[in-house]
Automatic annotation (TrEMBL), chain A:
It is found in: Cell membrane. It is a multi-pass membrane protein. It comes from the Bacteria. The lineage of its organism: Bacteria, Bacillati, Bacillota, Bacilli, Lactobacillales. This is Cardiolipin synthase N-terminal domain-containing protein.
UniProtKB/TrEMBL annotation, chain B:
It holds the Pfam family ABC_tran. CDD domains: ABC_DR_subfamily_A. SUPFAM superfamilies: P-loop containing nucleoside triphosphate hydrolases. Coiled coil: none annotated. Residues 5-231 form the ABC transporter domain. GO terms for molecular function: ATP binding; ATP hydrolysis activity. This is Abc transporter atpase. InterPro entries: AAA+_ATPase (IPR003593), ABC_transporter-like_ATP-bd (IPR003439), P-loop_NTPase (IPR027417). The keyword ATP-binding applies. Gene3D superfamilies: P-loop containing nucleotide triphosphate hydrolases. PROSITE patterns: ABC_TRANSPORTER_2. Belongs to the ABC transporter superfamily.
Length: 74, 306, 253
């Protein structure tokens, strides 16, 4: 199995790497925003952190569309 | 053309409710006009009609002799408007927002103009986004965007109602500093604000201009002469109020009279001696705009005691 | 006329600063990257869960493109609707247009600038996603089963132009973002129901996001979809004109 996993990474790193970078990047930007703010349109900090971390892609998108307190990104 | 703004027979109804009924007034160029009225008296509607944001059912509005048409913005080049709660794009800085406004109104030499206007309202040191602005800062940015295109007529809707006393004083000083250069129409329900800065006061009541004059003349016409008698106990106060048939509040009876103060005071003293009441304080009350406002907006004939 | 670029610039700044464009771009790039990956891995995953005995066909470039169109037509456009469903209604509830309209910004310029900004973003993200998927597909699958990738993508671009007009109209009509979203969903539901009418197939705008793989393989000629493109673009025009008329009537309280 180990060999398989290594082989898998060797075969697919050209797509896996950017996918990982984008997903983690999106998550980090959302998390940064969550921790810089204390108020959200609804929900609390713990809830949004869980949503953003657990649900890849959908979580951050949901946060940026519904959770963000204002339209500003300060 | 001494009048910058003229309203003739303005009428507006929303469904069955008449908001404005035959409203007429003029504002002389360079003066400050305070529009006073209770909530729902039609102050905001009047302003929105002047700005062409709403369609009048009847009547004419002239700015600088030019007729205002609904939905058209030709006369808006002469006006600056500060809404009651000015809304901005929170993601912009004040400079970016003013740049957007300058681009829309084709302000010449915009960069310099923006800096000057920001300095005028005291926001020149603020570089962060509007998102973090306080209520007072938003109000100041509001006046900055309204003044950016050098309007001849500045319209402010309840500009001071959401500000704390210090912010209010600062804002009124700012408005006052424009006197002579810009004609100002502002609405408020805080009467002391009007007394402080306006040249003319219009009292709007049920869609009509119940009174419109300089504060001094309004005081002369509508001001009631009153004196206040303060007693040590509520019981005495009540007895006094019953005797003079006058309203009382806490330990003070307010007596309204006509004629001279001296004659009235003598009469009151004699009456008091007769019923064996002695006030701890007696003073003359100067008419305030609040009283004038109450007087003017009372539909029934004002009852004058004594 | 000079106000249109001014408001367009404001729209660009808004979509950038509010991170809407960023989110949109990241999502579409992920779709683009994951489409070929998913096509390649699906047989392996199935084998893992069903056992090695199961015989499955080797994945081809067609599977990769199928994933791509599925992702965009079933997820991508709805994410757009969610992100941009408040583009007009939010301005109305926040009263942000009052200042600008009293300064002489015509209301038609608001709608046109917003539409152009949406369309620009759509073209950029779809084109980028398309080229990325194309690149990876040719890299992973060296077959000749997908001869017409560009012709297959064209209907999707046209559908986007139509869909954005629907979102824009919904946002102008609805008082809240949710009402606008409801309108968009309703339009999509009606169009999918209309698919039951087989005769109308070539006129139905949703065929523009359903027949892409057939065009890709050369089983369907792009010309067959010209009526649907015509209908979509005609409706786009009607929706934009109606949005302007609607906004002209609205009181900017």
């Amino acid at each position: 199995m180990d060999l398989n996993e290594t082989q898998f990474l060797i075969d697919y790193w050209p797509t896996l790497l950017p996918v990982a970078i984008l997903e983690v990047g999106l998550m980090l930007v959302a998390l940064k925003h969550i921790f810089q703010h204390t108020r959200y349109r609804f929900g609390n900090r713990v809830m949004w952190v869980v949503i953003v971390v657990v649900f890849q892609i959908i979580g951050p998108v949901a946060y940026f569309t519904w959770g963000k307190g204002t339209t500003s990104d300060e | 053309m001494s009048d910058l703004l003229t309203l003739y027979h303005l009428q507006k109804r929303y469904g069955s409710r008449a908001v404005l009924q035959d409203l007429n007034f003029k504002i002389p160029r360079g003066s400050i006009f305070g529009l006073v009225g209770a909530n729902g008296a039609g102050k905001t509607t009047t302003m929105r009609l002047i700005l062409g944001l709403e369609k009048a059912d009847a009547g004419t509005i002239l700015i600088n002799g030019e007729k205002v048409h609904y939905g058209q913005t030709k006369t808006n080049r002469m006006t600056g408007y500060l809404p009651d709660v000015p809304a901005f794009y929170d993601y912009m800085t004040s400079r970016e927002y003013l740049r957007l406004c300058a681009d829309l109104t084709h302000v010449a030499n915009a960069t310099v103009k923006i800096e000057n206007t920001l300095a005028l309202v005291g926001l020149e040191e603020v570089h962060h986004r509007i998102h973090g602005f306080s209520r007072g800062m938003r109000q100041r940015l509001g006046i900055a965007q309204a003044l950016l295109n050098d309007p001849e007529l500045l319209i402010c809707d309840e500009p001071t109602s959401a500000l704390d006393p210090a912010g209010r004083a600062a804002f009124l000083n700012l408005l006052y500093s424009l006197k002579g250069r810009v004609t100002v129409l502002f609405s408020t329900h805080i009467l002391s604000d009007v007394e402080r800065i306006s040249d003319y006061v219009g009292i709007l009541h049920h869609g009509r201009l119940a009174a419109c004059d300089t504060p001094a003349r309004l005081r002369a016409i509508y001001g009631r002469h009153q004196m206040a008698l303060t007693f040590a106990t509520v019981a005495e106060t009540r007895r006094c109020a019953t005797h003079f048939q006058a309203p009382w509040h806490d330990c003070t009876v307010t007596i309204t009279y006509q004629g001279s103060y001296a004659a009235e005071a003598r009469q009151v003293f004699q009456d008091l001696l007769a019923v064996k009441l002695m006030p701890v304080n007696l003073r003359r009350v100067d008419p305030t705009l609040d009283q004038i406002f109450m007087e003017v907006t009372q539909n029934e004939n004002p009852t004058r005691v004594l | 006329m000079r106000t249109l670029p001014v408001f367009f610039k404001k729209e660009l700044l808004e979509t950038w600063r509010t991170r809407r464009f960023g989110v949109l771009a990241v999502v579409f790039l992920l779709f683009a990257l994951m489409s070929p990956l998913a096509a390649k891995l699906t047989p392996d995953l199935l084998r893992l869960s069903l056992g090695t005995a199961v015989k499955l066909p080797t994945p081809t470039s067609v599977d990769s493109w199928t994933q791509f169109y599925k992702n965009i037509s079933q997820m991508g456009i709805y994410i757009i609707a969610i992100l941009f469903g408040g583009t007009v209604s939010r301005e109305l509830t926040d009263k942000t247009l009052v200042n600008l309209v009293t300064k002489g910004l015509p209301r038609w310029a608001v709608i046109i600038a917003k539409y152009l900004c949406l369309l620009g973003q759509w073209l950029v993200v779809v084109a980028s996603a398309f080229f990325i998927t194309w690149g990876y597909t040719t890299f992973y699958f060296s077959d000749r089963q997908s001869p017409h990738p560009i012709a297959a993508c064209l209907p999707l671009l046209v559908f986007g132009a139509f869909f954005l007009a629907v979102v824009l109209f919904g946002s102008t009509w609805g008082r809240h973002t949710y009402e606008g979203l409801l309108f968009t969903c309703l339009v999509m539901a009606i169009l999918f129901l209309a698919k039951l009418l087989k005769q109308a197939h070539n006129f139905n705008p949703v065929s523009l996001i359903g027949d892409n793989v057939a065009i890709l393989q050369g089983n369907l000629s792009l010309t067959k979809l010209f009526p649907a493109m015509g209908v979509a673009l005609g409706l786009t025009l009607i929706l934009i004109v109606s949005s302007v008329a609607l906004l002209n009537k609205k009181a900017l309280v």
